[in-house]
TrEMBL record:
<dbReference type="InterPro" id="IPR005149">
    <property type="entry name" value="Tscrpt_reg_PadR_N"/>
</dbReference>
<dbReference type="Pfam" id="PF03551">
    <property type="entry name" value="PadR"/>
</dbReference>
<protein>
    <submittedName>
        <fullName>Helix-turn-helix transcriptional regulator</fullName>
    </submittedName>
</protein>
<dbReference type="InterPro" id="IPR011991">
    <property type="entry name" value="ArsR-like_HTH"/>
</dbReference>
<dbReference type="InterPro" id="IPR036390">
    <property type="entry name" value="WH_DNA-bd_sf"/>
</dbReference>
<feature type="region of interest" description="Disordered">
    <location>
        <begin position="126"/>
        <end position="146"/>
    </location>
</feature>
<dbReference type="InterPro" id="IPR036388">
    <property type="entry name" value="WH-like_DNA-bd_sf"/>
</dbReference>
<feature type="domain" description="Transcription regulator PadR N-terminal">
    <location>
        <begin position="15"/>
        <end position="83"/>
    </location>
</feature>
Length: 204
């Protein structure tokens, strides 16, 4: 996703919106934008800092030093602009949500394609082994290391599919403001349970 996701002037307004939530330094603003877009849009320092300087010149933002960091805070004038333009902020937010949802669909499609390709490659390898004759086929089937490598590929592909799909779902929930601590706690407990079950299966 390119920086063009923001129409002219929208990034300026969105920075004010982020600062209205809490004071931040420049990197935190960059990280907040990256997180909001699920990592698909990461503005450069050369994009963010000139806009912050302009906002400061306009009296909408003020800055202070905190050790080696410069913290930016919204002023009363800046907060008034955000409130006056609240409908525009909501339009921008909706655009971000649509972008994240498109990303989730693309991730699922990409993972599905990768899984199908892997299954096809494994099936082709198995057919090739069978076609080479009973000796080669038997050695392939009876070779624990070869079978383990194939199972490892399948396991890693399944883990990648799970991670990418769940990550996309979590990003959507976060964008909707509905990602709760209970969900994260459930995720951790279920992952621990699955890990223990898999470990016990490998020991048996």
């Amino acid at each position: 996703m390119s920086p063009a996701v923001f129409a002219h002037g929208d990034l300026r307004l969105y920075l004010l919106h982020l600062l209205a939530e809490q004071p931040r330094h420049g990197y935190e603003l960059i990280q907040a934008l990256s997180d909001r877009f699920g990592g698909t849009y990461v503005p450069s320092a050369g994009t963010i800092y000139p806009r912050l300087s302009k906002l400061e010149e306009e009296g909408l933002v003020e800055r202070r030093s905190d050790g080696r960091k410069t913290i930016y805070s919204i002023t009363d004038l800046g907060r008034a602009e955000v409130e006056a333009r609240r409908p525009e902020v909501e339009v921008i937010e909706n655009g971000v949500d649509d972008s994240v949802r498109r990303l989730a669909a693309e991730v699922r499609s990409s993972v599905d394609h990768a899984m199908k390709s892997l299954r096809a490659d494994l099936a082709a390898a198995a057919r090739s082994a069978r076609d080479e004759g009973p000796t080669t086929s038997a050695s392939f089937a009876d070779n624990p290391r070869a079978d383990s490598r194939m199972q490892l590929q399948l396991a890693e592909a399944a883990l990648t599919e799970f991670r990418n799909e769940l990550r996309a779902d979590l990003r959507i929930r976060m964008g909707d403001g509905r990602l709760e601590a209970a969900t994260v706690a459930l995720l951790k407990s279920e992952l621990a349970r699955v890990r223990q079950a898999v470990a016990e299966s490998m020991r048996s």
